[in-house]
């Protein structure tokens, strides 16, 4: 974020960073697709100096002559960068986290829509809290039996593991077992299978499941889960061999906790 009194160069650099990720992810800094926008930014950064030299502000006793050359340099120096930034803006808006999370809670997702928006979001470039928040929203929507979201936001994690960071994966697992009200809720044909998918390439699956166990132990059960928990537990046992080795014991611990709570009645 920038403030009203921030320096011109700071505002320009922040705006450039926001739209820059619209280029193909993972491009090296010396790639032409990064060098050309950077050159445009350097042109735009010189406008401050031209404004200070030829502008009428700051109580100057003498105003310099503004020639056609000065006008042309200012106009074209600004337009080159602005045109590049505006062309990228739609991609940035497409991947904005807040609207995407909102739409995952109730919007429609035809084939390819979520994939495009997740790609535009540049998940590896997000801060970890945002990665996790997005993962939770995808997990919760998938648990509500939205087929396209499940394919493009969960099963896709196995196809290109480096594009899906740990925090996103952890969020997905949490969303598969907790609803938007913070209650335990899972679907037998979806939640265990999808959790096993996203944990395959997590660097610390045992930590994810230990954290999930703590959250599930403190949460109440939704009415739906009270009805479906036997089938969910059975499905979790069936998925146990698919869990990474370090994740199998905490997964078993969660199963045991759920069975114990079922005997004494969920809160």
Automatic annotation (TrEMBL):
<dbReference type="InterPro" id="IPR026001">
    <property type="entry name" value="Abi-like_C"/>
</dbReference>
<dbReference type="Pfam" id="PF14355">
    <property type="entry name" value="Abi_C"/>
</dbReference>
<protein>
    <recommendedName>
        <fullName>Abortive infection protein-like C-terminal domain-containing protein</fullName>
    </recommendedName>
</protein>
<feature type="domain" description="Abortive infection protein-like C-terminal">
    <location>
        <begin position="24"/>
        <end position="82"/>
    </location>
</feature>
């Amino acid at each position: 974020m920038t403030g009203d009194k921030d320096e011109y160069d700071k505002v320009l650099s922040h705006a450039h960073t926001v739209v820059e990720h619209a280029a193909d992810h993972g491009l090296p800094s010396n790639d032409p697709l990064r060098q050309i926008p950077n050159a445009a930014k350097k042109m735009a950064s010189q406008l401050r100096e031209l404004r200070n030299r030829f502008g009428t502000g700051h109580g100057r006793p003498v105003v310099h002559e503004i020639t056609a050359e000065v006008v042309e340099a200012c106009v074209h120096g600004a337009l080159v960068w602005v045109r590049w930034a505006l062309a990228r803006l739609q991609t940035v808006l497409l991947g904005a986290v807040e609207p995407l999370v909102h739409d995952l809670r109730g919007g429609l997702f035809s084939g390819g829509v979520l994939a495009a928006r997740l790609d535009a979001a540049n998940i590896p470039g997000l801060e970890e809290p945002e990665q996790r928040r997005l993962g939770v929203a995808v997990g919760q929507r998938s648990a509500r039996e939205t087929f396209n979201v499940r394919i493009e936001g969960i099963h896709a994690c196995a196809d290109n593991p480096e594009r899906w960071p740990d925090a996103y994966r952890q969020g997905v697992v949490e969303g598969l077992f907790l609803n938007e009200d913070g209650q335990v809720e899972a679907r037998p044909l979806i939640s265990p299978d999808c959790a096993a998918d996203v944990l395959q390439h997590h660097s610390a699956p045992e930590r994810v499941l230990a954290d999930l166990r703590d959250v599930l132990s403190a949460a109440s059960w939704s009415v739906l889960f009270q009805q479906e928990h036997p089938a969910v537990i059975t499905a979790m046992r069936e998925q146990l061999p698919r869990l990474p080795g370090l994740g199998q014991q905490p997964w078993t611990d969660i199963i045991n906790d759920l069975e114990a709570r079922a005997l004494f009645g969920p809160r």
